[in-house]
Amino acid sequence: MKMIAKIHTDLPTKFGLPRQSGLVEELEGLIVFEPAYRDPEALRGIEGFSHLWLIWEFSEAKRTTWSPTVRPPRLGGNKRMGVFATRSPFRPNPIGLSCVKLLGVEKTPDNGTVLRVGGADLMDGTPIFDIKPYLPLADCKPDATGGFAAEKAGYSLKVDFPAELLAKVPTDKHAALKALLAQDPRPAYQHDPSRIYGFGFAGLEVRFRVEDNTLHVTEIEYQMI
């Protein structure tokens, strides 16, 4: 398959990514097409759709072998399920599927027409293979069941974000970062309340710990470039 675009987001690594698309709608991304696919005619009519499907590559999870079972993080990392019953990145073909909200179609002087989207669960620089419109009449299944994933539906943490630390974060990033932290970025099998975790976000290093049902932000630092 040919890469048609890359998405640019505020998350430079896998740690901290939302576990599914749409969970953090405030998290924005910019889809920039490769030069060969910048013909604006390829996007004619796309503004009429509220949501899009992105087909992309787990570029940081490539392996030469595969396993028929994996350990879904939301099951604590100690229970195995069939790889085709999960959305694990460790698959025979490292392909991901995400549903994002189309926020805007923008013309730029350097990159042609780009797409601004919300709710993406992709790290910065992720290759995109295809984009398709979300069709409510075909894609929405109100009677669908969620298997074992439904057990954790609605799970979130309270976020304790001291004002002096929040002031270090650009104002337009506040909502996205708070929503991201509420989703509990930790590996599901780690519960040490004294352990400090950290991840990159919008040029910042965000450090936190979790005790009971509350995430406490402990430090915000500017990342070294």
Automatic annotation (TrEMBL):
<keyword id="KW-0808">Transferase</keyword>
<keyword id="KW-0949">S-adenosyl-L-methionine</keyword>
<protein>
    <submittedName>
        <fullName>Methyltransferase, YaeB family</fullName>
    </submittedName>
</protein>
<dbReference type="InterPro" id="IPR023370">
    <property type="entry name" value="TrmO-like_N"/>
</dbReference>
<dbReference type="Pfam" id="PF01980">
    <property type="entry name" value="TrmO_N"/>
</dbReference>
<dbReference type="InterPro" id="IPR040372">
    <property type="entry name" value="YaeB-like"/>
</dbReference>
<feature type="domain" description="TsaA-like">
    <location>
        <begin position="1"/>
        <end position="143"/>
    </location>
</feature>
<dbReference type="InterPro" id="IPR023368">
    <property type="entry name" value="UPF0066_cons_site"/>
</dbReference>
<dbReference type="GO" id="GO:0032259">
    <property type="term" value="P:methylation"/>
</dbReference>
<keyword id="KW-0489">Methyltransferase</keyword>
<comment type="similarity">
    <text>Belongs to the tRNA methyltransferase O family.</text>
</comment>
<dbReference type="InterPro" id="IPR041369">
    <property type="entry name" value="TrmO_C"/>
</dbReference>
<dbReference type="Pfam" id="PF18389">
    <property type="entry name" value="TrmO_C"/>
</dbReference>
<dbReference type="InterPro" id="IPR036414">
    <property type="entry name" value="YaeB_N_sf"/>
</dbReference>
<dbReference type="InterPro" id="IPR036413">
    <property type="entry name" value="YaeB-like_sf"/>
</dbReference>
<dbReference type="GO" id="GO:0008168">
    <property type="term" value="F:methyltransferase activity"/>
</dbReference>
